[in-house]
Amino acid sequence: MGKVLVLNASYEPLNITNWKRAVILLLKGKAEQLEHYENFIYPTFPFPSVIRLRHYVKVPYKDIPLTRRNILERDRHSCQYCGYRGDQLTLDHILPRSRGGADSWENLVTACVRCNIKKGNRTPKEAHMPLHKSPRKPYSSLHFEIVKCTKDNLNHEWRKYVIGI
Ligand SMILES: [Zn+2]
Description:
The chain has helices at residues 19-27, 68-74, 113-119, 124-127, 141-149, and strands spanning 3-7, 13-18, 31-42, 45-53, 89-93, 108-112. By secondary structure, the protein is α+β, with helices and mostly antiparallel strands. The protein has 2 domains: 3-60 and 139-161, no CATH class; 68-127, DNA Binding (I), subunit A (Orthogonal Bundle). It is elongated. Bound molecules: zinc ion. Keywords: Endonuclease, Hydrolase, Nuclease.
């Protein structure tokens, strides 16, 4: 039990908080509860899952850092060439670094050691190794966090409020 999706007054996802902070917002009347878990904090008060703020707040833009961990997470820890999942994963530059390929969301993908070696210093086209999907930067830091929190059908009631997951 723990994560709570906070929606803005406009119903757009705003952030993810923990249940204690969510309960404080509910008790202070600053938010309303839209979805809850089946467990109860006390008999008339279930653990919140999705809450909505009563007043609109402006959201500061938060960029998502380009890190190995985030790329693996974006690619769901699977090789983008053969679909392998496991711990033998590396990062592959689609256009090799030696040929001017950049470190970017669009040029880095998760690849297993075998595919990375097989592809070598070639592009996917040259190596006849098409990518399962073309990589892109995640929509937003929050969207990325929501995807993580809803995998394996966790927090499935969040899906009603989030586009594109
Ligand atoms: Zn592979």
